[in-house]
Amino acid sequence: MPIIQRLASSLGRKDEEPNIDLAREIAESGDSEAVRELVDLLRTSNKDIRSDSIKALYEIGAIDPSLISEHAEAFVALLGDKNNRLVWGAMTALDAIAASVPELIGRNLPAILEAADRGSVIAKDHAVGILIKLSAIEDYAGETFPLLLMQLRSCPTNQLPMYAENALHLIDATNKEAFTETLLDRLIEIEKDSKRKRVEKVIAKAGKR
After folding, report:
1. What pTM did the predictor assign?
2. Which residues lie closer than 8 Å to 208 by C-beta, 6 or more apart?
């Protein structure tokens, strides 16, 4: 059965299970041709097919990033799309492969961050994930860690604990002062006690690194 016929919308389904099942099957079999078919479907005029395809692709990437990494340019091309579902879906895929194709991701950081600024919370989450992955690579950290700090300064307080926790492994003697000062400056903004305590715990751990 052609890939397009196995997507949720082709089956008359409103849920994502067919797309998830398809992604799992493709990832487990390493079917690069099926991945290519899904990437080609991103260019169709059918909105539902495009949405199903990006869902399947980023689910594949979550299991085996290598299967979708060669198609990174196709995901970057979606960042300017008017369909927000495709934008944050593309950002999810790029987050999955950021460590595999850091040079391409680095070249496209302006487009990634612009899409995050105007996009959904999910898009922002994955943009921060991308910055964290690149900041773990010595050749990119000098550029991306300051950008990560900018995201920590401006992100919604609801997201701050997660971002700080995810970035903690990057912290060492060279950057802990900037990191902890950024978080300390935002503590007063955090109204929910549980979230404030999470950030305080990150600050304490960072101070010991």
Report:
1. 0.94
2. none
